């Protein structure tokens, strides 16, 4: 990953970059593609940054705009969605770095195969298939399957930078690469635009950078040890991950609760917090008659919601915290679980 960038490597990332809002320098990808020999200039600039293991201070500055989530109660900051806009030259640079990290991770198995977020392929479909297979297996073998879908509060914004560096070192990315990543996160700041002015610079003290092409992979590295701890050497899937969305699969209520305790402990250890109010559980019993026992699970001392119960078999797929691969088991269960017990 430390070899000089080639013109072909940079050109490919530049040509594939989709136009987006520009950062503080107001330059778009179209501008860079329009500059004569622009790809050569970018390659030279990136190789200089790679050699000195530093990027220009201007690349570390972003502008944040606020998009309303609702039309009411706009005095509440939580009802606004922040969007960070980085300079496109920085995003091209980190696109090249991300491409190398992706290739390296795939070659050396640096990331657990249970993680499908920020991968070149549609991992949601694969997770859906795994869930469907496990549910069908439980039904045919008349066994239990206990599932928990976990929500991590502000996962991308809360991951400590030291955890990113520690995880990168543990994965074997190399000292030079870690120094490069540390520099990307040193003295980074954003200004929030309002109607009439911008705020003073706000330092980024935790979390991965919003809108940065390499952020997803760095986050995956940061939580990878948790996935490996749960999966272990088991041949059947025990954990499915799509970035910060986790799905645990246990063979019994006790088995699932043990996994929940481990995940809670490991998440807390790296400064992340699980959100019980947006987490859900399901205990499916394939024994005759097929049933959904009212088993309860907890995160520490906090219980969380059952996604389905025999007393209330109707379900909503629009609740906060549901993601696409959570919907699939509900559709399957609606076919194999009787509406009345």
Automatic annotation (TrEMBL):
It comes from the Eukaryota. GO terms for biological process: DNA biosynthetic process. CDD domains: RT_nLTR_like. Residues 48-311 form the Reverse transcriptase domain. Gene3D superfamilies: 3.30.70.270. This is Retrovirus-related Pol polyprotein from type-2 retrotransposable element R2DM. It comes from Araneus ventricosus (Orbweaver spider).
């Amino acid at each position: 990953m430390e070899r000089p960038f080639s013109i072909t490597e940079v050109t490919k990332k530049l040509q594939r970059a989709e136009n987006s809002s520009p950062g503080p320098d107001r330059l778009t990808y179209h501008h860079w593609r329009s500059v004569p020999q622009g790809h050569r200039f970018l390659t030279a600039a990136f190789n200089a940054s790679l050699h000195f293991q530093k990027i220009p201070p201007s690349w570390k500055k972003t502008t944040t705009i606020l998009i309303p989530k609702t039309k009411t109660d706009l005095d509440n900051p939580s009802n606004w969605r922040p969007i960070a806009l980085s300079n496109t030259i920085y995003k091209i640079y980190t696109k090249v770095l991300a491409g190398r990290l992706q290739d390296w991770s795939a070659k050396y198995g640096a990331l657990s195969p249970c993680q499908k977020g920020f991968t070149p392929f549609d991992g949601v479909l694969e997770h859906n298939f795994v869930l469907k297979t496990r549910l069908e297996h439980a039904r045919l073998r008349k066994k239990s399957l206990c599932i928990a879908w976990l929500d991590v509060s502000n996962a991308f914004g809360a991951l400590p930078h030291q955890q990113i560096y520690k995880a990168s070192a543990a994965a074997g990315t190399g000292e030079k690469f870690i120094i490069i990543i540390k520099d990307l996160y040193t003295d980074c700041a954003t200004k929030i635009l309002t109607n009439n002015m911008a705020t003073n610079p706000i330092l980024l003290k935790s979390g991965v950078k919003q809108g940065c092409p390499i952020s997803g992979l760095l986050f995956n590295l940061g939580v990878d040890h948790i996935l490996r701890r749960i999966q272990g050497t088991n041949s059947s899937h025990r954990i499915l991950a799509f970035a910060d969305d986790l799905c645990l699969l246990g063979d019994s209520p006790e088995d699932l609760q043990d996994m929940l305790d481990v995940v809670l402990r490991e998440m807390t250890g790296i400064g992340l917090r699980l959100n019980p109010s947006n987490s859900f559980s399901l205990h499916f019993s394939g024994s005759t008659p097929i049933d959904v026992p009212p088993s309860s699970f907890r995160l520490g001392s906090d219980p969380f919601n059952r996604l389905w119960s025999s007393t209330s078999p109707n379900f909503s797929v629009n609740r906060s915290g549901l993601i696409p691969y959570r919907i699939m088991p509900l559709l399957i269960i609606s076919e194999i679980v009787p509406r009345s017990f």
